[in-house]
Amino acid sequence: MDNVKDMLTNAGGSIVLAIVISIVGFFLIKFVMKALRKLKSFEKLDQTMTRFILNFINWLLYIMLIIAVISVLGVPMAQVIAVLASAGVAVGLALQGALSNLAGGILLLILRPFNVGDYVDASGASGVVHSINLFYTVIITIDNKRVTVPNGSLMNSNVVDYTAEPMRRVDLVFSCSKSERPSEIQKCILDAVSLSQYALQEPAPFAHISGGTNEAMEFTVRVWCKTENYWDLYFELNQSIVEAFAEKGVQAPALRVLSSN
Questions:
Q1: What is the pTM (predicted TM-score) of this model?
Q2: Which residues 6+ apart lie within 8 Å of 87 measured at CB?
Q3: Is the separation of the CB atoms in 254 and 216 below 8 Å?
Q4: 237 — phi, psi (to 5°)?
Q5: What stretches of 73-132 show up as alpha helix (H) in DSSP?
Q6: What pLDDT, in 10s, does the model give residues 191-245?
Q7: In sequence order, what are the residues at sequence separation of 6 or more whose Cβ sits closer than 8 angstroms to the Cβ of residue 137?
Q8: Nearest to 225 by CA among 172, 173, 168
Q9: Which is the most buried residue in 62, 111, 140, 174, by most CB within 10 A?
Q10: How far apart are CA 243 and CA 254, in angstroms?
């Protein structure tokens, strides 16, 4: 009991110091991260790189804090390194998926297939990229659901970025009776397109016969717009062209949109 008492007495100071360092270090890391987020230098970077760098620094600071606490407790660092090296192999095998996600996060930062705020379709998820972290990427769907996608999966799958380019094209298909004159239907469609505030005139709008059946003709309509106006133009054309057909007395099946893309 005397030996145990002496051991606890000798180690008591180190334990108290380690606890103090842990508490102070925790609040110090919070303060440093808060200060880093306010730096003007980060304002020059886009959100993707800023969040990734801050996450990396946060992890690094906590690792340094753990090493400092271990040193204060008097544990020889050589032994700690040896134990970590031995455990690293086993942990690496057990955490292959996590390491794959970490590598994927680093590659996302370097290759930049998409950025925070882009609307993407990747690994079965579609929505706006909310954040890119070290191990996973958060996507918010159009109905406001949060989808967490592992970075490893993103780097090994096709990624469609709908907002990467400044312009997009709206494609629609309408049909009308074969008794109608194609030139008049074409003019009716293009007149409706010209009234849209979102439609671009360069490249020029397109409206031509693209197919049909024994009873109907199909017209493909292609109109370019700015990327941010895609859905506004999409719904506007669906309504304005149908209304234009109704005003001109175009015979059925003109009032039905067959397909869209």
A1: 0.61
A2: none
A3: no
A4: -65, -40
A5: 77-94, 96-111
A6: 999 999 999 999 999 999 988 887 888 999 999 999 999 999 999 999 999 999 9
A7: 105, 108, 129, 131, 148, 149, 151, 154
A8: 168
A9: 174
A10: 10
